[in-house]
Write a structure and sequence with these properties.
Blueprint (H helix, E strand, L loop, with lengths): L3 E7 L6 H9 L6 E8 L5 H9 L5 E6 L4 H10 L5 E4 L5 E2 L3 H12 L3 E12 L2 E8 L4 E4 L1 H13 L9 E4 H6 L11 H10 L4 E14 L13 H18 L6 H25 L2 H12 L2 H9 L5 H11 L3 H17 L1 H12 L10
Parallel strand pairs: 1-2, 1-4, 2-3, 6-10
Antiparallel strand pairs: 4-9, 5-10, 6-7, 6-9, 8-10
Helix pairs in contact: 7-8, 8-9, 9-10, 9-11, 9-13, 10-13, 11-12, 12-13, 13-14
Amino acid sequence: MPKVSVIIPAYNVEQYIEKCINSVTSQTYKDIEIILVLDGPTDNTEKIIKNICYKDKRIKVISQQNMGSGPARNNGIENASGTYIIFVDGDDWIDSDMIEKMVLSAEINGVDLVITGSTNFVFKDGNYKKIGHNRVSSRLINGRNECKEIYLDLYTRGIVHGPVCKLYKRNIIDKNKVKFPDLRRSQDIIFNNNYFSYVQSLFIDDNCYYNIRTMPYENLKFKLPRDYYRICILLDQDLNVKLNNWGVEISKVKEQTIANFFITRIGYCFESIALNESLKESLTLIKSIIIEKRVQEAAKISTNINIYQLILNKLIETKFTYGILGLVKLKLFIRRNLPSLFGKVRDGIFGKEKTASFNQ
């Protein structure tokens, strides 16, 4: 069976990296190489990794200055020798048969990409509690046009954002020079957009072999760059350009779907601002976001998928900065101080919160 390169970027994950590595070394599929890329950690991550690597000759450790997970993954790709590549984050872990199942799916179906589901766990008081899954129905998709048509659905469900839960062909990455761009956030979305340009077949497995560690709402420290909304606009433009180049017809429904997703990400920008900035700075930053043409356009097109989104869209349209800040702070207050209540009313009022791609 073909070799698989497992690339793990590691930055300040001393609490979790051993569990992550052990889940990879204990795979039922043995023909793997494990490439650990130390991204300039300042805690004990490096020490832990070096103590573990002596136990398994399949582990290769690469060090770099802190440049972010994108360049770390690029470094891993450059040093990979496997037929396939899998990415695992240093604070996550995988089921023991994940690689075996994904390789089997790739080989039997002869596809360019395999996607599997994930299980989300909240890490609290030293224990993991399962809080949900992120997956779509199993299916085999053949043909470049068919793959492009399904991409928007996978994109807006968050399935093709991060590089985890996927088995890539290394020759497609190398031949087409598919790389993670030098962005501190969301570079993985652009990587997947570019890789998908060359996908002619894919298999989706609805089993959840990948496990994502998340923080409880009340402990969440959420900070995005002040200008992250510009990255959101860039990603929105990149998606629309890709769909246009692929010849995918953008119907009214698809246009609304794209707008819904875009406004949701802009909402994350508002939350980060409300959590981390003074009143004066918050109002200034929110104003700079809502005057953007694409933000106004999307707020008008968005289909108001929940009560919170309905109110937020109206506040954006009217450019009511105080209203936006107040609404967002109310949501954050309920989420942080009344987590059980937030869980009960979330889907109807605030909407289901998906695992977003906000990598370091």
